[in-house]
Each structure stands twice: as C-alpha cells, then as structure tokens.
Amino acid sequence: MSVTYTDDGELMAAPADVDSALGGVARRLDRFFDERRVTAREQGPSSLALWDALRDSATGGKKIRPRLVLNAHRLLSGVREDAACDVAVAVELLHTAFLVHDDVIDGDTRRRGRRNVIGQFHVDAQQRGASEAASRAWGEAAGILAGDLLIHAAQSMVGRLDLPSSIRVPLIDLFDESVMVTAAGELQDVGLTEGVLEASAVDVLAMAGRKTAHYSFRMPLRAGAILAGADAVVATQLDEFGHHAGIAFQLRDDLLGVWGRAEATGKSTSSDLRRATMTPLLAHALSTPVGEELRHALGLVDPRTFDAERARALLAASGARETMEQLIADHAAAARAVLERDLLPVELQRLLADTLRSARERSS
User: Fold this and answer.
1) Range 32-39 contact pairs with CB under 8 angstroms and sequence separation of 24 or more
2) CA dist 88 to 229, 263, 293, Å?
3) Would you say 159 and 173 are in contact if contact means Cβ atoms under 8 Å apart?
4) Does residue 140 belong to any structural domain of this protein?
5) What confidence score (pLDDT) does residue 201 get?
6) pTM for the whole thing?
7) Rounded Cα distance, 45 and 359, in Å
8) Minimal CA–CA distance to 88: which of 56, 111, 65, 112?
9) Looking at residue 261, what is its pLDDT?
10) How confident is the model at residue 266, as a pLDDT?
11) I need a surface site. Which of 2, 10, 79, 117 has the fewest CB within 10 A?
C-alpha cells in the first residue's frame, strides 16, 4: 500500500482498490440524488430545489468517513464489497445531514466556501421579495427538513441491505447509536456556548467526543468491522482508536477555526469567535488570567465590544493554543498505543496510522 502526503500533511492517496470503491460511492450518491429528484419534481419546485441544494451540500469534501468504512472492511478481509459501498454512502449522507443541522443551529449560510442549504433558500426568498425575517425562516426550515430527510434516507439505506440479520441489525443499531450520541453532543454544545450549562474543560472535551469523534471515526470503523465479520476484540480496538483520533481531529478543527486559512478551510476564521463557540480551546482560555478580558473581546459582556483580532491575540496569550496542541499530541499518542497492541492486520495498522497523522496535522 502506498500513501502520499502533501507538504501540509494531507492524506493524498488511498489503496488503488479503495479509490475504485470510492468512485462507486460517488456514482451511488449521484444515483441516489437523481432518484430523489424524480420524486421531488412531483411535489413541486420547492421540493426539487431542496434536493438540488442537498446534492450541492454532499458534493466535495475529503470523504474521510466513507474511506474509513471501505478500508476497515477490506483490510479486515471483508468480502461484502457491494454492501460496504452502500454503507459508505449512508455514512456520507448522515455526515451531510449533521452538517446541515449544524448550520441551522449556528445560523451559518455558507459551507465549504459556497452557499449552503440555508443560504440558497434565504437568497431565493429574498429574490421573491420576502422580508429578511421571512427569508431567514424559509432558509432555516429548509435546513431542518433537509437534514431530517437525509437521516431517514441513511437509516433506510442500511435497513434495506440484503445481508444476514446478524450483520444488518448491528449496523442499524450502530447508526441509531451514532444519531443519538451526536444529537446529545450537539445539544450539549449549544448549552455550553449559550451558558446554560457550566463550561468546565472536562465537559467541553467530552462534548467534542460526542459531537464529532463518534460519527466521524468510531462509527465508520465499526461499520467496516461489522461488515467484515470481525470479532469483538477487533471492534473494541477500532472503537478506542476512533475515539482518540476523532478528538485529535476535532481539536485541530477548533484551532483551524481561529488560526486557519479561510481559503483552505472554506470557513471564516471569525465565525466561531463571533459566536463564542465553547470549544476546549476557549474553555481553557476563559479559565486563565486573561479570561475576563477575553469575554469582553468576544462580546460576551457587551456585543458592541466584539473584536476578533483582539480575541485571537488573547487566546494566544492565554497559552490555550499550546495546551490544545499538547492535547492533540496526547490523544494521538493514545491512538498510536492502541495500534501497537498488534491485534489488527498490519496493512490496517499502517493505514490508521496515516489517517491519524492526517487528522492531527491537517490544514483544512
């Protein structure tokens, strides 16, 4: 297996057979949206526009989660290639649903450098002459419904797999678990950011594990293992690796949200600051001597005092950036320690080590 990185540490290549399978995932995604468009056309132009916006939302990205499903299945000697492709598609649909719902919660109108579902419907309403309030409501309703549709579609896709119940039922349970865990993490995220819940560093880090690590790493790896018929020891090891790799991934995402390059991330580096999103980075900084000054710079005391550059400088001065880098290193070390138990096939160990490096060092 050959793996290549860019200068920024991005994972560039997967095994050739997985690249081929990812092509199959892309084709199945296209077919899925084509079929939905046919049905949506019968429901009227707004329904059709919703599915077109959803297709846009599912286009692009690194397809990290489908890669994990396919690689785990194949490198654990799985033979259910067709089912693995379908599960990879379902995982990507679930990921898109969570992003759309996250945009609704955060009030974002752009994703990956372009208008998201909310933004497209917001603009559509404005072009129809609707008020700003009506346009916002139209966009948010579209986002809520779009996410709901994709969650249902992902679950339905897994439920219809032509597999023995001993495989299909655990997959359905895994998807159900992932939706519940992610929803709990998202709700906790809002509670922490809005000050409804006490923002201790421990609770904020646990939230990151629920909101991102589970569905981005733990679930895809376990899905591949279930499809391959792997034993419980292997599944547990993959789950533990996914937990640590997923937290490292999210902590890096938090740093990129403040100090990343917008042209690389497709996301503003001031939006998290303006919302004062309660990340482990921010929770730590608020607990330091600069915490009160940081609260003012974030506009938490008075919205008129918001100053992104000042907030960024205070975050750096607090030592929070270095603390997060150390946390990333600690979780990466814990993930590597899992691989060193040598319970996984050598090729899968190598691939997961490469995935960990990409998660830890990525720039977008």
Assistant:
1) 32/89, 32/93, 32/153, 33/58, 36/153
2) 16, 28, 46
3) no
4) yes
5) 79
6) 0.90
7) 40
8) 65
9) 80
10) 62
11) 2
The full length of the chain comes to 364
pLDDT in the model for residue 6: 35
- How many angstroms separate the CA atoms of 10 and 361, rounded? 7
Quickly count: other Cβ atoms within 10 Å of residue 220's Cβ: 30
Query: What are the tens digits of pLDDT across the range 86-127?
Result: 999 999 999 999 999 999 999 999 988 889 999 999 999 999
Nearest one of 190, 56, 30 to 113, comparing CA atoms: 56
Q: 3-state SS string over the chain?
A: CCCCECCCCCECCCCHHHHHHHHHHHHHHHHHHHHHHHHHHHHCHHHHHHHHHHHHHHCCCCCHHHHHHHHHHHHCCCCCHHHHHHHHHHHHHHHHHHHHHHHHHHCCCEECCEECHHHHHHHHHHHCCCCHHHHHHHHHHHHHHHHHHHHHHHHHHHHCCCCCHHHHHHHHHHHHHHHHHHHHHHHHHHHHHCCCCCCCHHHHHHHHHHHHHHHHHHHHHHHHHHHHCCCHHHHHHHHHHHHHHHHHHHHHHHHHHHHCCHHHHCCCCCHHHHHCCCCHHHHHHHCCCCHHHHHHHCCCCCHHHCCHHHHHHHHHHCCHHHHHHHHHHHHHHHHHHHHCCCCCCHHHHHHHHHHHHHHHHCCC
If you compute the radius of gyration of the chain from its CA atoms, what whole number of angstroms results? Answer: 21
| pLDDT for 5 | 34
Domain span at residue 230 reads 16-361
Number of domains the chain contains: 1
User: Are the C-beta atoms of residues 68 and 220 closer than 8 Å to each other?
Assistant: yes
What is the pLDDT, as a whole number, of residue 355? 93
Kindly report the average pLDDT of the chain as a whole number.
91
**And the tokens for 198?**
């006490």
Task: Tell me whether residue 1 is in a domain.
Answer: no
Domain CATH number, residue 140: 1.10.600.10
Residue type, 66: P
The structure tokens listed for 267 are 């996301």
Low-confidence ranges of the chain (pLDDT < 70): 1-16, 263-267, 364
The verdict on residue 8 lying in a domain is no
